[in-house]
C-alpha cells in the first residue's frame, strides 16, 4: 500500500441520512480493507443482478447500516431498485453536502470516495513517486469517473463511446471501444514518438 485516502464515517453517515430521507429502498455498501471485502446493509444484495452476483458476492458481509457507515471506507456504493447511478448522483449533488467525491462508472451503482479522491489524484501521486510528470502520461477512458484523469494527463483520450463530459476534456477522441479504440490511441501515440538512435 503506497497511499490511501478514505471516506470519513461522519461524511458517509450524512450521505446515507440524506439519501435515505429522499429515496425509499436505497441501499448502501462500504468497501473495506483495500477492496478485500464489502460491508453491505441488508437488502443490498437483492439489488445485485445475477451475473454480477457471481463475480463478487462471496466478498460481501451483511451488516447493519450503522456498521456499514461506522468506520472509514475506501468507497461507499449506493444502489436503488429503479434509479440509475446518474439519477442517484443528481439526488446527492442537490444535497449541498461536502467532504466527498461522488461519481459513476457505467456500473449500476453510485460511487462515493473521500474528498478529492479520483483516478487523477491516484495516478498523480503514483507518478510523483515514480518521477513522471503529467505531460508524460496518456490516459484513456469513457465514463464520468475518468473525466478528471483524462483532463489531467498530458494526452487525454476519450473513447468514441465516452460520456459527453469525458469527450469535452479530452485532447483526442478515438473510436468506440468495440472498434479497438484504445489500440488506435496507443498506435497514435507510438507513431508520434521519434525512433531512438
Could you characterize what this model shows?
With 197 residues, the chain is an alpha/beta fold. It has 8 helices and 9 strands. The protein has helices at 9-22, 50-56, 65-68, 85-93, 119-130, 147-152, 164-169, 181-192, and strands at 27-32, 37-41, 60-63, 75-79, 100-103, 110-114, 138-141, 155-158, 172-173. The strands form 2 sheets. The protein has a 6-stranded mixed beta sheet with strand order 3-2-1-4-6-5. The chain has a 3-stranded parallel beta sheet with strand order 7-8-9. It is globular, with a radius of gyration of 19 Å. The model has no long low-confidence stretch (mean pLDDT 94).
Molecular shape = globular
Q: Count of helices?
A: 8
Question: In which range does the helix fraction lie?
Answer: 25-40%
Give the termini distance in whole angstroms.
Answer: 38 Å
Strand order of the largest sheet: 3-2-1-4-6-5
Helix and strand pattern: HEEHEHEHEEHEHEHEH
Write the layout of secondary structure elements.
Elements: H1 9-22, E1 27-32, E2 37-41, H2 50-56, E3 60-63, H3 65-68, E4 75-79, H4 85-93, E5 100-103, E6 110-114, H5 119-130, E7 138-141, H6 147-152, E8 155-158, H7 164-169, E9 172-173, H8 181-192
Parallel strand pairs: 2-3, 7-8, 8-9
Antiparallel strand pairs: 1-2, 1-4, 4-6, 5-6
Amino acid at each position: 500500500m503506497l497511499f490511501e485516502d478514505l471516506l470519513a464515517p461522519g461524511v458517509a453517515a450524512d450521505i446515507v441520512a440524506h439519501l435515505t430521507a429522499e429515496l425509499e429502498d436505497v441501499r448502501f455498501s462500504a468497501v473495506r480493507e483495500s477492496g478485500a471485502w464489502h460491508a453491505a446493509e441488508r437488502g443490498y444484495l437483492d439489488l445485485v443482478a445475477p451475473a454480477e452476483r457471481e463475480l463478487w458476492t462471496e466478498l460481501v458481509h451483511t451488516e447493519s447500516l450503522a456498521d456499514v457507515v461506522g468506520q472509514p471506507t475506501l468507497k461507499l456504493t449506493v444502489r436503488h431498485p429503479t434509479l440509475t447511478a446518474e439519477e442517484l448522483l443528481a439526488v446527492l449533488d442537490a444535497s449541498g453536502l461536502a467532504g466527498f467525491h461522488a461519481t459513476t462508472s457505467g456500473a449500476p451503482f453510485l460511487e462515493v470516495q473521500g474528498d478529492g479522491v479520483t483516478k487523477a489524484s491516484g495516478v498523480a501521486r503514483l507518478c510523483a513517486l515514480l518521477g513522471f510528470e503529467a505531460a508524460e502520461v496518456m490516459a484513456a477512458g469513457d465514463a464520468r469517473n475518468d473525466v478528471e484523469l483524462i483532463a489531467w494527463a498530458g494526452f487525454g483520450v476519450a473513447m468514441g463511446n465516452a460520456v459527453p463530459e469525458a469527450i469535452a476534456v479530452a485532447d483526442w477522441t478515438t473510436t468506440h471501444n468495440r472498434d479497438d479504440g484504445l489500440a488506435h490511441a496507443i498506435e497514435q501515440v507510438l507513431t508520434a514518438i521519434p525512433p531512438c538512435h
